Write the structure tokens for this entry.
Amino acid sequence: MAKMNMVQALNLALRQEMEKDDRVILLGEDIGVDGGVFRVTDGLLDTFGPKRVLDTPLAESAIAGCSIGMAVYGLRPVAEIQFSGFSYYAFHQMEAHASRMRPRSQGRYTVPMVLRAPYGGGVRALEHHSESREIYWAHTPGLKMVIPSTPRLARALLVSAIRDPDPVVFYEPKAVYRAFREEVPEEEETFPIGKSRVARPGGDITLISYGASLMPTLEAATELSEKDGVECEVIDLLSLSPLDDQLFVESVKKTGRAVVVHEAHATYGAGAEVIARIVEKALLYLEAPVSRATGFDIVIPLYQREKDYLPGVPRILKAVRQTLAF
Amino acid sequence: MAKMNMVQALNLALRQEMEKDDRVILLGEDIGVDGGVFRVTDGLLDTFGPKRVLDTPLAESAIAGCSIGMAVYGLRPVAEIQFSGFSYYAFHQMEAHASRMRPRSQGRYTVPMVLRAPYGGGVRALEHHSESREIYWAHTPGLKMVIPSTPRLARALLVSAIRDPDPVVFYEPKAVYRAFREEVPEEEETFPIGKSRVARPGGDITLISYGASLMPTLEAATELSEKDGVECEVIDLLSLSPLDDQLFVESVKKTGRAVVVHEAHATYGAGAEVIARIVEKALLYLEAPVSRATGFDIVIPLYQREKDYLPGVPRILKAVRQTLAF
Amino acid sequence: MPNREIDIAYRVKYLSILDQEGQIDQELDPHLPGELLLKFYRAMVLARRFDERMLILQRQGKIGTFAPIKGQEAQIGAAAALLPEDWIVPSFREAPVELWRGKPMERMLLYYSGYSEGGRIQEGLNMLPVSVPVGSQMTHAVGIALGMQYRDQKSVAATFFGDGATSQGDFHEALNFASVYRLPVIFLCQNNHWAISLPRSRQTNSATLAQKAIAYDMPGVQVDGNDVLAVYCAVKEAAKRCRAGDGPTLIEMVTYRLSMHTTADDPKKYRTEQEVAEWEKRDPITRFEKYLTERQILGEGQIRATAEEIKTQIASAESRWQEIMAKGIDPLDMFDHAYAELTPSLLDQKEIVARELEEKK
Amino acid sequence: MPNREIDIAYRVKYLSILDQEGQIDQELDPHLPGELLLKFYRAMVLARRFDERMLILQRQGKIGTFAPIKGQEAQIGAAAALLPEDWIVPSFREAPVELWRGKPMERMLLYYSGYSEGGRIQEGLNMLPVSVPVGSQMTHAVGIALGMQYRDQKSVAATFFGDGATSQGDFHEALNFASVYRLPVIFLCQNNHWAISLPRSRQTNSATLAQKAIAYDMPGVQVDGNDVLAVYCAVKEAAKRCRAGDGPTLIEMVTYRLSMHTTADDPKKYRTEQEVAEWEKRDPITRFEKYLTERQILGEGQIRATAEEIKTQIASAESRWQEIMAKGIDPLDMFDHAYAELTPSLLDQKEIVARELEEKK
Ligand SMILES: Cc1ncc(C[n+]2csc(CCOP(=O)(O)OP(=O)(O)O)c2C)c(N)n1
Ligand SMILES: Cc1ncc(C[n+]2csc(CCOP(=O)(O)OP(=O)(O)O)c2C)c(N)n1
Ligand SMILES: [Mg+2]
Ligand SMILES: [Mg+2]
């Protein structure tokens, strides 16, 4: 097993799936010669050639639209949108077609495509490069929406996404891209789409998070254990759609308290749905309001203010302590 | 006071604002000569001429983009997207620009535009003509998102939207367009954006809804009153962003029970945020889980199945009775 | 030459073979076998009659909104110029093409009477479902063509769209991609002069739609879209180029929507009867019938026989449609094609509807 | 003529006045006053020096990612051809134009050092902020021009974008709208041959970008984009057409990005040093300096004096920038420009940050 960062792990997933299945084709801006602006596709053009790694013109809607056509034709396109902030140029294609080809054709045509895009803040990027707006996709029936949190999971989840018979939007937390390394086995690994996981077991309070926010959430959990003697159970959602509510509902039944953490805007964010599920399925277990430590309802500011915008360890600690003190 | 349906009331709002303010300009597909496919802009070309009522080429992104430019220049464009299902062609313009011109220019430029679009099911329409996906907009900071429920409110809200200094997405429930008439005063009326209202007072349970779903919700409330002796307090949200949580939170504090009703897909729908706010602000008052009577997490089917998809009176009654019986 | 004209490689062509009086241009006559010409004739008449019948059914409330095709029947020339392994990516005004390709009428009736089940396309038929969002389907054809190129298939992806659709950004992106990758795509623009109430002249400022091909150094051809022979020949030639690896073509078929935009539309609001009358003279069926009759490929008797046959054919499709509806289609089906597998939430939601249906009984 | 060539009204022109050796075309010489030529010179040198300085600051970690403009300084010719009441809608590689228009350097430094406050544009300056989403800003210029037309202003809206941006659907929609409404828009394409790693030749298949104007029956002009005189003249003429009510023009300025795409980019991955060297010979400043020197409009001493002046000018902007940062900018400001008024939720959220900041102290 080699230690890899998330970029390398994603690259491994793509390389192995391309070796295994000649239906897998990559397309996107600057993914070939340049290897992708984050180098996720580095070296793949050399190995697989320009028929399988397509440097496209600058047009996100066409990237999505062509992927849909390729998928219908029987290929397994993996499209990269350079930053999630530009994925909305392709929104109508995904909303009107990728997500509906199956119902519209009553199952005759399917769209097994993946739309990959780096998302989220924390890397001193320019405007439009730091958004966390996964709900647009997660609220769209017919699409799946997943966000990995570690290198190993990123690799496993991407393999599952590529093999999934339905369109998957795959957001990659760029704050995690090179943040740490993890052992990633050379042999194949998958992770079921639609399943969350316990990232840290505990019995006092449930913290529910995903993607880039998992890092500060786990940090906060460690600090709470060390300083407050509080054991947090941390749930990593991984899949926003389909949403796996079983794990976090079970956890809340045990702990009676929960905090949701995400970078996305609070209002109509994933936290709202998580809370609604807890209310529907475990209201009587709740000993305190479920609170949210999230990004705010404003456009994420330029990089000097990012740390004040993003839900960092202090905001999480405070939410947890208030919830415990309720 | 004349009795008007919602189409006429909207027409009145446009006409009067255009008379009052020469900055108000309409643009969209088929809004001029044809008067709009639903006739909301009927007669306005004749009165105000082609410089103020622009029949545009078929390009939603350009309609939004030009509106942004006009608004920056000092006009007050009111753009019509023929059906909300096609508003996603303009999504990147609204997401990247309309919503951000103010923060990006630090207040130097603003975008006082309105993006109008009929939404929702129930009128035997074609594919892509019956969606209810207001959350895409409501989750986007910098935009406002409102949905009227009656002719009189539609008129008042549209006037407020046109005068609002920020971009407003204005969804019109086409199931209500010609469903009933209401007295609409000739003299000016506005309704504050960001405020909800009590559509029917009651003390036993709170029903929270908006737009086209308000009709079956009120019907259900009547039936519950008549058959079960249950008095529902019905809250009409009107504004999904900014969301007014005060009224429904106060109501739930009084009733202890609530049901949210909307056509939109359940998961990550408005109901989730409503529930989250109730949990955050009134958990201890809750005597039962807040339940949701909503559309499902699938694409709305063609018209024969619409009634099985949409949250009609039976689904609402059931949710209310279950919540009361909890 | 610091201030000079740039020589643009591509020039735009205009093609018309059979004029509106039914007179053929001798030089351009493709000399198609009589049997094929009769097939064209029959397909155009079937499309016209089915369209008329749908309109009646719609007015009777038996089906919902649909987009009549009257006047645009010569589009079948495009389908006829393609092979079964070629793909067709339609918009929503290609019922004649769908019929030509073999989509059963009962399925179309099912679709327009509000049953999603009508959207199914039978195995083996390389055609995408109707696409309502204007302009959005062209990139799908480009993607399919990318697949063909990747698999070394010498096939063609042909996509239909209207004059209005040329204003959409997706039109531009599709042509650009097709040209950059030199893909076997035929872009078939049905310029029927109207996009609901907006006339072609106000949709875009260019003299022709075909010339938009110059933006991509792509061949652009304008054909008389009411001349089934011209349409056939232009598409045949474009397909040949596709199969030879010479890339895409844009074809503007100049035609006219004689009927309303959809059954929800009232064209009297925006166009004159006179204009319509003018175009009725250029009816694609009338001129073709005249030509076939004069050439004695078609006789009076055969015209009547064909009409009878078609009547029966439509009637029996209607019966099959009624039978399917009478047999009943399970409303719960609406959950089954959301994903390959039902998600846990969808299982719960399906259960809600099942119970509601149960209680309604 | 049933099979004929269609005559397309618009032809595409190419314009170059000052060649890469600094030799002027006598016939095309616009005979601009020496003072104006010196202003051009100074503006181009300032832009180059500021760009170099930004690169150093970025490498020192004092500012974040930005898009260098080296080699594209002749763009100021476009700004110079416009009047103050005209609007400019830039992309993100128009620092020279922003400087020409009077945007303070300290504000640009503030923006690239991560303060949203840097985005403010002073009152009276008719220019939109930098637009990062490629291609999306052109329709804003079209909207502004609609406003001008509505208000009977004889002004111009000029919008800049790159060669890559021409692939976006919004480019097509913007040109179409501008042409349909005959609006006073100048579309200024900075064809710098690269869109990050994609060369112009693979971005689109057309021989020129200028010819894309033909799709809209709009005049299209290709100019030597490293020739400030040609750029100036082409834009001047387009502006004249705009003011006369004759509608939009597409101008392709052929130039070259001598530096990296942004400071996060490594061009060695995708292009040869040789290609860059080739283009260095066509540097817009070198040729212009040579021309001015030979014409004795500019002397050795003045070159040095200008350089010194610019150095001081940049240094003092940096001081002002440092002062603004030292004075401190309230982080809570981030809530203040979300809407005209803070919403109840935003008030709560602002309070959360206020408390966090308090506790951090
Ligand atoms: C993106 C989008 N916008 C608007 C509509 C509503 N609409 C349906 S057809 C149509 C006009 C289409 O005109 P054209 O492309 O010329 O095709 P035609 O109807 O003439 O066949 C419009 C505006 C739509 N279906 N999709
Ligand atoms: C819609 C969108 N997609 C992708 C990007 C990322 N990106 C930034 S600049 C660029 C290339 C732009 O090329 P071009 O238009 O030629 O302008 P240039 O950078 O050469 O000035 C890309 C892909 C973006 N900013 N916006
Ligand atoms: Mg048309
Ligand atoms: Mg470029």
User: Anything to note?
Assistant: Residues C 162-164, 192, 194-195 surround magnesium ion (ligand 3) (CB under 6 Å). Chain C touches chain B through 45 residues (CB under 8 Å). The mean pLDDT of chain C is 96.
